[in-house]
Each structure stands twice: as C-alpha cells, then as structure tokens.
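Crash report, auto-generated. Payload:
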Amino acid sequence: GDSVTQMEGPVTLSEEAFLTINCTYTATGYPSLFWYVQYPGEGLQLLLKATKADDKGSNKGFEATYRKETTSFHLEKGSVQVSDSAVYFCALSDSGGGADGLTFGKGTHLIIQP
Amino acid sequence: DSGVTQTPKHLITATGQRVTLRCSPRSGDLSVYWYQQSLDQGLQFLIQYYNGEERAKGNILERFSAQQFPDLHSELNLSSLELGDSALYFCASSVGTGGHEQYFGPGTRLTVT
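Recovered output after restart:
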C-alpha cells in the first residue's frame, strides 16, 4: 500500500538557518503530494501542494518539488523564524477512483531557537 | 480559520459508551473525511464521504461508523469505546475528489476513562 516516510526529529535550528525536511513516498498510482503544518493545540493547515512530477509548491517562503524519479517531496525554507516552530506532515493522495484519503508521514517536530 | 467546524471540542466518556462527533464542511465542499490522530498510530484516514455517499474506507474499526447528511454535514459515531480510542479526531473537507486539497477542522479530543 501507499506510505510516506519523513524524518521525525525533533529538528532544532537557529533563527535564519536553512531548513530541509526530507520526505519520500511509495504509491501505486500518480499521487498528489502535500505538506501540512500543525501548531500546538490546533488542527492541520495546508502549507503547499504539488499534483504532478516536477511541480513546485510554494507558500510563506516554503518550497517543495515533486520528484518522481526519486519519489521525494522535500520541504525547504531559506531562512526560518521562531514562528515556524511546529510539526510538519508530508502526505499523499492516491486518488484512483476518486477515493483520496490522505496517507501521512509520522510528522517532523521543528524547533526554532532565537 | 479553515471554515470547517467540529463539535464538541473536548469529550470525556467511559469505556463501553457511545459518542457522536459532528463536522460541518466548508461552504461548497462536497467531500468529507475523518481522521484519527494518536501518539502511537499517528494520523490515520478513517473514512470518506462524497455528496452523501460513502466513497472510501481506511483504517476504520467496525465499532465506528459515519454518515453524511443532505445538508453535507457529517457525523462520526464511536461505540463500545475502549481506552485505546482516546485520540484527536479530525474532520476535513474538499471541493470534490481527485487529489484536491483538504481543509481540516480544529478537531475533537476524545478521552476514554
């Protein structure tokens, strides 16, 4: 079945550092890929998405590129802020037949220190 | 604010009991999804409804059931509750099917004692 693997952390960085959170996936079809962010005590917020190979999703300074050849969707940000501290989830939707419940990775806890 | 609402925010109940969680999707969204988030299992897809019809099942236990009503709100029913059912339950909605982005509600925290 489908699966998503991501580094679990916690990942601790200093403010203004470069961020990479790795995500790789296994899927039978041609999935759509997503990054969601969860702040403490809140629900999940969609951060960015990509629906086909070589698409780049971007939002709020975060970027991720859909790499079919390496089955990866790594999240990057050039300069992180304390407010970026949260848990980040990589997810896929393998929507053959219109059934598209998301498959999530285990989440990466990101801590940004001032 | 995603536009997806869930009630109640917190629920505490005893083992063996039955509870109902409610979700209202974003205006115009036809698909509703239910997810369970727990420390040991992570985030798991339970079930999807599209325009009133069940579309897909994930890791949903037989003790759990759901439905989507004509006004598109959805309810998740959990029965014969066990301690291990304690978790955060999220509802999400999307405009349709086929890889559209899903918008999540704030969740219902269920504690079974």
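Post-recovery validation: The mean pLDDT of chain A is 93.
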